[in-house]
Amino acid sequence: MRVSVLILTLNEETNLPACLESISWSDDVVVLDSFSTDRTVEIAAGAGARVVQRKFDNWSSHQNWAVRNIAFKHPWVYYSDADERVTPELAGELQGIAGDGQRDEVAYRVRFRNMFMGRHIKHASLYPTWVLRFFRPERVRWERLVNPVAVVDGPQGRLQAHFEHYSFNKGLAQWFAKHNLYSSDEARELIRTLDQPVNWRGLLSGDPSERRIAMKSLAYRMPLRPALVFSYLYFFRLGLLDGVPGFTYCRLRAIFEYMVDLKVKEFKRKEKGLAP
């Protein structure tokens, strides 16, 4: 049994060729494009991928639309961002699971190597982080506006292999532009979360999605969050062992959290009718 692949794109002509090459073993690649203005669609079509276009609204609704409306050729779907690469080891594992009809799992989580300045940022990037990437589309849905959390109807498993993530491939200017948008959605999620109590039981949950939501809810309430995030990543998680790339990565993460905090204050002022 083979595997379908779903890739979400918006102006990804820089990243898409390498991504497509890494999943060339699949005979059903679907590129869900948000009306790119560069060569993304041309590159996808040239590689034999099916191109479906939909205007992007937010991450969870976009992904939910994909699994509900796209007719995939195979029962199992692997989801990839354009700046990710499927390793040969992961490809073999995916195909092996898809061909095994005796498994109870309906979805699998996988670790990734976050690449920055030519090296794997192992410590500062919170490795290993397990994300849902391989699933039966009828058994999953996503929640949250940004960094969506997967909700799975059925048992889950974990894959042994990794994918590689190149989130800085377009340069720092593009990284800041993308995270400027992300920080707005995170700020809205933060405001919504602060209206709800902390799920203390969720902090000890065996469900990665529930545990992550609970940890975010608690972290949002901490004072001096940007400084705490830097200290946590650089010292407690030993980002200092990642050298100069690790130090830079930790500072960028702190900058992102500061952007979120500033936008929370801005949104609250607007709600009160005050000047920004």
How does this model look, in words?
The chain has 276 residues and is an alpha/beta fold. It folds into 2 domains: 163 residues, Spore Coat Polysaccharide Biosynthesis Protein SpsA, Chain A, CATH 3.90.550.10; 100 residues, no CATH class. Helices cover 41% and strands 22% of the residues. Strands 1, 2, 3, 4, 5, 6, 7, 8 and 11 form a 9-stranded mixed β-sheet that branches. A hairpin with a 5-residue loop joins strand 9 and strand 10. Helix 5 crosses helix 8 and helix 7 runs antiparallel to helix 8. The radius of gyration is 19 Å and the shape is globular. The protein starts with a strand and ends in a 5-residue tail after the last helix. The relative contact order is 0.12. The model has no long low-confidence stretch (mean pLDDT 92).
Backbone shape: globular
**What order do the helices and strands follow?**
EHEHEHEEHEEEEEEHHHH
CATH superfamily of the largest domain: Spore Coat Polysaccharide Biosynthesis Protein SpsA, Chain A
Strand fraction? 15-25%
CATH architecture of the largest domain: Alpha-Beta Complex
- Taking the alpha carbons of the first and last residues, their distance comes to 56 Å
Note the main sheet: 9 strands, mixed
Report the mean per-residue pLDDT as an integer: 92
The tally of strands reads 11
Helix content: 40-55%
Structure classification: alpha/beta
Instruction: Give the low-pLDDT segments.
Output: none
Helix count equals 8
User: Any idea of the CATH topology of the largest domain?
Assistant: Spore Coat Polysaccharide Biosynthesis Protein SpsA, Chain A
Radius of gyration: 19 Å
Can you tell me the number of structural domains? 2
CATH class category of the largest domain: Alpha Beta
